Amino acid sequence: MNNLNQYLDAAILKPEFTQEETIEALKACIALKTFSVCVRPCDIPLAQEYCKDTETAVCVVLGFPHGVQLTASKADEARRYIALGVDEIDMVANYGWVKSGQWDLVKEDITAVAQQTKAAGIIMKVIFETAHLDADAIKKLVEICIEAGADFVKTSTGFNGDGAQEADVQLMLDTAAGRIKVKPSGGIRDAERAQMFVDMGAHRLGLGWNSCEPVCKGSAPTSTSGY
């Protein structure tokens, strides 16, 4: 089995989390040496404090969870997060525009953020919500993300419908054809499922922070709820 911890972006994103709960989650993920912790924007300084001099990077969500902010607002978000020194950004594609087939607007939205992250040398992922899209829309979004300059395509926020499904992930991998990386996210709560996606060719995995220990240690999941 691979060292799965190095594939894990551990989500600490529940809006109701207290500072104490966030710190607990950060400490747990750092101890497991997850690739990153993916946090709410308000938790960037806290995550950086705890992740400093560790093997765990700090990722932040942008336009979360539906991606319906103004494009200019998303670009401004990116600038602010970059200025704070985050390592990676996970942005949400505009869900309404995607469902409407307004592909030019979708591309403009993603490009506005990608221009910021490329200039800063920061990894950027784009979240689709594949559970609500057909195959043609998923393929179209992968191509748009490649053209826009994103680094990853990601299945789900974990807050809107089902998470990563094998068929959708395979479709993203096939469409990407090595031109962009793929991140299954949501519904990954045990080592077997995590390993399956890695074996398929996934480059990173998104899961709730409390699923990281079961995944890393191959034990039973502690919870079936949440991300």
User: What would the average pLDDT be, to the nearest integer?
Assistant: 95
Main sheet characteristics: 8 strands, parallel
CATH class placement: Alpha Beta
Strand content: 15-25%
Query: Quick one: CATH superfamily?
Result: Aldolase class I
Going across the major beta sheet, what is the strand order?
Answer: 7-6-5-4-3-2-1-8
Number of helices: 9
N-to-C SSE series? EHEHEHEHHEHEHEHEH
Number of domains: 1
In short:
The protein is α/β, with parallel strands linked by helices and 227 residues long.
Structural commentary:
This protein is α/β, with parallel strands linked by helices. It has a single domain (4-217), classed as Aldolase class I (TIM Barrel). Helix content is 44%, strand content 15%. The chain contains 9 helices and 8 strands. The chain has helices spanning 19-32, 44-51, 71-84, 95-100, 103-120, 135-148, 166-176, 191-200, 212-217, and strands spanning 8-12, 36-39, 57-62, 88-92, 123-127, 152-154, 181-183, 205-208. An 8-stranded parallel beta sheet has the order 7-6-5-4-3-2-1-8. Strand 6, helix 7 (166-176) and strand 7 form a beta-alpha-beta unit. Helix 5 packs parallel to helix 6 and helix 6 packs across helix 7. The chain is globular, with a radius of gyration of 16 Å.
